[in-house]
Design a protein that fits this description.
By secondary structure, this protein is of the alpha+beta class. It has four helices and seven strands. The strands form three sheets. It has a three-stranded antiparallel sheet with strand order 1-3-4, with no helix packed on it.
């Protein structure tokens, strides 16, 4: 199992081992310049989301992205359902196909996987990604570029926003080196 359920529950996040090879990372990076692979491009500064840009994939999703979604959902759905039991909220289907069918039935038909691109000085404002009435409680972030080789600086900061209290950082994470392809 890749996902540490105890960490997700106790800390609100879990750091996965490398799940993409360097070759897969390069394959995904190369897709960014192909407008036919994406449905929407967002200039973050235009919307005051930060500085940089991101693009939402269109269907059909790239093989790597689709494979990750299916394998990670299979691990995350039971954890999400344990949380649902504790919170007394509706459970999630056991398969990604069933979840997508449920989302589509509620008008949520567009794919949500995306790729971000940052340049020098770019950043993303603190935010929470919610795309409709049905929201799966977990997101997975994969770092495709290699710190120290592809860029310097930068952090990935996770923030907790407790009710009636100041926000505080809970983790600063870096990408682990991927296994050779």
């Amino acid at each position: 199992m890749l996902v540490d359920a105890d960490s997700l529950t106790a800390r609100g996040f879990a750091q996965l081992p490398a799940i993409l090879t360097p070759g897969e990372c390069h394959e995904l990076i190369a897709l960014y310049s192909d407008p036919d692979r994406f449905r929407t491009r967002i200039d973050m500064q235009q919307y005051r989301f930060g500085r940089g840009e991101y693009q939402y994939f269109r269907y059909p999703l790239p093989r790597i992205v689709d494979g990750l979604r299916h394998s990670l959902y299979a691990e995350l759905a039971p954890i999400a359902n344990r949380w649902s039991d504790l919170l007394q909220t509706p459970k999630f289907p056991s398969t990604l196909e069933a979840l997508l069918e449920h989302c589509h039935g509620h008008g949520q038909t567009r794919p949500t996987p995306l790729m971000l691109r940052y340049g020098p000085g770019d950043f993303n404002c603190l935010h929470q990604d919610i795309y409709g009435e049905i929201a799966f409680p977990f997101q997975v972030v994969c770092f495709l570029s290699e710190p120290g080789r592809d860029y310097t600086g930068g952090e990935f900061l996770l923030v907790e926003n407790p009710p009636r209290a100041q926000s505080m950082w809970v983790a600063r994470l870096c990408r682990r080196k991927a296994t050779p392809s």
